[in-house]
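are you around this afternoon, could really use another pair of eyes. what follows is a protein written twice so to speak, once as letters and once as structure tokens for the fold. i want to understand how the tokens follow from the sequence so walk me through it. anything you notice is useful, everything is just below.
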Amino acid sequence: MEHKYVRSIFLGYVLVIFFGALVLALPICHKGHLAFIDAIFTATSATCVTGLIVTSTSENFTFLGEVIILILVQIGGIGYMSLVIIFFLSLRQRLDIDEKRAMRQSLDLPNMHVRRFLKKIFAVVLVIELLGATVLTTQFLKKYDFLDSLWYGIFHSVSAFNNAGFSLFTNSLMGYQSDTISLVTICILVVLGGMGYFVLIEIYENRKFAKRFTIHTRIMIYGTIILILMGMVLFLSIEWNNPKTLGGLSVYDKLLNAFFLSINFRTSGFNSIDLAGLKESSLFFSTLFMMTGAGQGSTAGGMKITTVAILIITVIYILKESNQQPSIFKRTIEQKIINKALAIILSSSFFVLLATLILVETQNLPFLRILFEVVSAFGTVGVSTGNGDILSFSQEFDAFGKSIIIIMMLAGRLGVFAFGLILVGKAKTKHFKYPVGRIII
């Protein structure tokens, strides 16, 4: 991981966020008073495709403000480096090696074929978001006129595919908790966005030859299915009779909303039930799903499915005292990948616990709700227990508290490994090795 490329990507996100906040702060983009810290928070939440809100998207922003938020969501989802490279390509035919490396770093590309991969990415984004917008527009037509339905369809399709969780409805999708088509469409968009561009392209190109899938793609497919089913079972078992969430729904609607909840709790911020009514056990265990997140190089955040999968496999091999290197699908996992997975998980846990400690000591609010909000921000998920109204729990924080959440969203979008590299710097190359020391553990 090249320090200079990571630093460029980080500064790029900061500039996009700051410019977006300046635009949102303009009188033509919002209604009433908008504190600049709230403008920065909104711009960060959109660019980092999180979905936490401290001011209502539909009630406090004009149509132009909503458009700006959606543009920031799309920039954050695709990656601003993609747009920069497209701009360079429009000016000249070739990219130099530094530009290719920066692009590869930004999107976690498997190789240096930037131009070809970018074309595939934009094709995937365009097709999926158009299909999603068409289906959602059709569903929204049952309640709204054509122009409103079209805008709602486009907005929610882009927001869902980019795992942003922004909604133009004040109660998110609670008004559609019995609408199978709308909820399933949102779920499909969220899952596809969370799989990662590389995985989607590989699945399409090798759709007739599943055996050609790379190990990464296989882990992502199986991991996504397992996490969705585990989340469903967890929420159904805990919330089945809870009158504040699933208790008052029919058996079919309980299954549908548990499925929706399981998907959106891990990567996106939509909700079809009141999350403030969830039991504390649901809130606690859901933090594990949010920390896991989705796929590398996707529109979602978190530690990533592959990272957690690698560490679980390694732990199993260690507990079995196997004399073999950890492997999966008849392929050995390199030690450097295991080391990186361990570093990501430990660093992520440290950042989350540190931010939670700071907020608990400075905001004088309940610990579990703060932990939930911090993990949601770091995982760029966007679900929240709320402020008692339609806004996220972050609205209860002061400017300092909101700044901590902003940092966590940025760290989650950039990736904890890259964010940590910016903080601690890169080690100097050493051309010697110390003797091995014996340590008892």
The beta strands are 327-328, 331-332. The mean pLDDT is 85. Residues 156 and 167 are 6 Å apart (CA to CA). The chain is about 65% helix and 0% strand.
